[in-house]
UniProtKB/TrEMBL annotation:
PANTHER family: CHROMOSOMAL REPLICATION INITIATOR PROTEIN DNAA. Oligomerizes as a right-handed, spiral filament on DNA at oriC. It is found in: Cytoplasm. Residues 332-451 are annotated as: Domain IV, binds dsDNA. Plays an essential role in the initiation and regulation of chromosomal replication. ATP-DnaA binds to the origin of replication (oriC) to initiate formation of the DNA replication initiation complex once per cell cycle. Binds the DnaA box (a 9 base pair repeat at the origin) and separates the double-stranded (ds)DNA. Forms a right-handed helical filament on oriC DNA; dsDNA binds to the exterior of the filament while single-stranded (ss)DNA is stabiized in the filament's interior. This is Chromosomal replication initiator protein DnaA. Residues 1-89 are annotated as: Domain I, interacts with DnaA modulators. The keyword Transport does not apply. It comes from Pseudaestuariivita atlantica. The gene is dnaA. Belongs to the DnaA family. HAMAP family: DnaA_bact. The keyword Amino-acid biosynthesis does not apply. Domain I is involved in oligomerization and binding regulators, domain II is flexibile and of varying length in different bacteria, domain III forms the AAA+ region, while domain IV binds dsDNA.
Amino acid sequence: MTRDQWGALQNTLQETVGRNNYVNWIKPLEYSGVDDGVARFLVPTTFLGNYVSQNFGDLILYQMSARGADVRRIEFAVPTTPIAEPKAAPAARPVPAKTTQRSDAMLSAPLDERFTFDSFIVGKPNELAHAASQRVAEGGAVTFNPLFLYGGVGLGKTHLMHAIAWKLKTDRPDLNVLYLSAEQFMYRFVQALRDKKMMDFKELFRSVDVLMVDDVQFIAGKDSTQEEFFHTFNALVDQNKQIIISADRAPGEIKDMENRIKSRLQSGLIVDLHPTDYELRLGILQSKVLKQQASYPDLEMDDGVLEFLAHRITSNVRVLEGALTRLFAFASLVGKPINMELTQDCLADVIRASERKITVEEIQRKVAEHYNIRLSDMIGPKRLRAFARPRQVAMWLCKKLTTRSLPEIGRRFGGRDHTTVMHGVKRIEELRLADPHIAEDIEILRRSLEG
Ligand SMILES: Nc1ncnc2c1ncn2[C@@H]1O[C@H](COP(=O)(O)OP(=O)(O)OP(=O)(O)O)[C@@H](O)[C@H]1O
């Protein structure tokens, strides 16, 4: 695909994703070409690349294929020369030009216009996070500070944060609301250091009324950024300004985060977004399908397809959305209505990945590899700590990731009693909170097993 063809394709993309999304996310992409089935783009930041990949990757892929390009994957890379920040496209945002605009225009990351409270579907797994977010979005007296939202990938943390920001910007334009990712916080901090503008940096951050930092786990292990974040945090809390933080795990479980920051993060309200259940998935699909139908008005969809998807794709909302986008793009490409057969055909890989059942054997093998011990020692009778701890980790993972009962798990661990398994699971539950190394081990193992 030539650069000109990419230029033409951008117009189509703009029609599909809307002007704001286009300006914020697609326009900053610099097309480098297709090489061995991989379409490559330069992006100003990793954040932008990740965002585009997660939200528009499938769409771009299909549009390129539809134009005859042999593309199977898209890759984004940040150039090694100085990075230009993505344009915040102030004109694209329905924010009245207020006096707050100074720091807002300079600092706030663009908000996705799709991420509002109206488009957020509430179900049991996210009702608490939603309620807490709405409370904060009312902009009244600060009752809990910070609001800490956490949960697995693609469960709606960013969506809720943007929704809070949109609502505050509309209802309380007097407030200076700042939303950015932890990565952007670091980027701006480093830039201020480099340009010897730390006073400006501090002043700007301390002048906000509401600070929202997404994916805070990113600054773990980055010492001076953490330090600066801590000071910013304290200065704002002291002034009774609202802070909202998101992360992929609870504050206590963020490895390489200083203890004083962890305890600060724990001092407000902590709410987690649980994995979706069937009803929530169906609700989300029903709302998203309406948007797809607006882009593809001629496509018909059979009854039962959404229920099928809600049953079969259980991973996260982003995957669910991606599946729907792909389904519509595919059906429109082949010019067929969306029925069960086409759905199974088009989404075979997604469904298979979601169906994959994790087995006890697989867990034992992975854990043994991770701790570098023999499988026989993990299952065998030895009580040495070097074997017992991995064994308990494996038992804990079996309890969490499989549907096996405690006696069944015990049997597969060399015929141990169910009370031994129960004890092991409990011990790891405690250690996960107390020992960041164990917490990290578990996270790595869980990801590799679920991946
Ligand atoms: N309850 C919901 N209702 C509607 N859409 C949702 C809901 N939850 C998530 N989504 C959608 O799923 C996608 C992923 O959500 P989001 O980006 O907020 O996830 P996240 O938790 O921030 O994930 P990550 O950890 O990867 O940043 C978004 O497009 C979002 O709009």
